Amino acid sequence: MISAPVPADRFTAQAVRQGPLTWSQQFFWFDHHWLTFPHRRVLLLRYTWDPPAGTSLAALGAALDALVLRHEALRTRYGVGADGQPVQVVLPPEPVSVITCPTGNSADEAALITRMRERDLDIGGDPPIRVGVLTDSEGYADRVIVMVHHFSVDLGGLDAMVAELEQLSAGAAGFAARPAWQPLDQAAAEQSARGRVRAKRTRLYWENLYSRMPYQTFPDRKRGPFPQRYHLLGLRCDDVEGAVRDVANRYQSSPASVYLAAFGAFLSLVSGQRSCAVTVAASNRITAPSAKAVGCLFQPVMLCLDVDLDRTFADLVARAGAANLTAQLNGAYSYFERKQAEARCAHRRGVSFRSAVDFNYVENKTPRAPSPGEAVPVSGEVYRRPAAFTDDSCDLYLWVYTHPSRTDIMLMGHAAVISAATIEHILVGMRELIMSARDEDTVPLSGLRRLVEAKSYGPGWAFVDNCWIRPDDVRAVLLAHPGVRAAAVVVDDDGLLTAYIHGADGTLGPSTLRQHVIEHLAGGSAVIAPHRYVLCAQAPDDPDDPRAWAAQPVLPAVRGDGPTTAEPSEAAAQALCAAVEKFNPGVEVDSSAVYLLAGGRAGVLTALLVHLHDQGYTGLSPSDLAGPASLGSLAKRLRPVGRG
Question: What's the pTM?
């Protein structure tokens, strides 16, 4: 590890500056802490640059140091304040360390990349930027590899950073000492009165979305180990981008909406869903200061696309365009407040959300070049690549990379929900649909059924609250309650999910049963909480016959059944409740409370768990506390530190 030469007067003394996270940084705070190493290596963005011949390490080092001096995002660390809330801390500039390696062949570059990625990034102590240089035989920079944490720089910021690096390395001058946009400026704007108004508006958007979206796209998601967790296939097209732009002009929409509509049509077919929740990228770079800012403004935003396969592609493009525009207008939001809104809506509907379908449209970008020995993709042919990541955070991910000379459509799917053959059919089908729309004014979506097998839900399934569920799975959860002797779950004439229950005694009530189901949502892939609970005096002779339950005598409502407080009695529960109260001033909790519903703040989850660890307990993750389980249930998962 060496540091390039830096003039002694390059840096001036600067004070440490601190402030709250930006809304974008809030998202990556969760992402970083929810993922484990090595999975969170996906948060290290990489850019490879071939500098002009004769670029010295000294010139490159000076350019890197100038970047760090100008852009606070490149010298920011992320920690926790005294109140438990995460903060960004801007440190004085320091020289950039560079790993150098003499170049020989592509294996040297691969080895250097591996070396740069092999150590986890300590977001509280390590610089967010890593640089590696392959040198030629004379010691000049031959290839530069820049890695930067997504916390600090998004793809737009990475492009701006590398463009500036190229100019600075060539000796360009005239850059302002401090750009107009810095992350702390962004955080201040978001915390202002105007920013809070915007936060309230976007919160309403998310609450509306969560109130109507399906709880997950693939309710029959298989569980268990798979030989290959993900399939990643691509389709190179030298003709589709022109067709997309023709279609977009005819339908008065955008190219992104055309691709999104084509994807949505096939997503509905393979999932069997009438509405499809899709996460899209919001760059949030629409103002002059932020357009070329070196920092992170990206946030994921979700839309719900209603798909009617009996209508036309033009109709779906219009729907996709409207949904995408609305989503983009709400693309900057407090991620912590979003998590709290999600918890409220999920509890109200009695569901557990898994919105694991992503769409990413990237203009003027091409995917990575084939590795040595890989075949060069041929236009119109599907090719296979190694999966981009292998954690369970995503079920289906579509990338569209456009370039003036070609377009690559790449689709990655989890083996639990989709096969490689189906992915290939979707890619080929999307291209065929788009080319047909270029040549024809009206393209019916019903014809797509010949291109991919449509998902159908037969006996044993029911469509309730925009969700496909298995009533028998809900019944199995209810029967797991120690007070339930027999049960049946049916969809009544009003479309409500109704549970008929025969209990061991007369103390069982609807609220107790509902909380029991909600706490077991994560364990069942096709389970939601019933809307009604009918307590019966006895079970019918055939408890498996739902119709027989309606004729049974009904018990009177259980008095006092409802949210109850429960003082924590076990040491682990007491420690958990004490940690919650420590980082949520004014919030009184008990072991029956659900953390976020009881007023707990999403932002302090990391500090809370660190404090709990210091008290001798481990076993919980931020996602556990952000879920529907009560503190008492979570306390049962705690174990002493040091015990497996």
Answer: 0.89
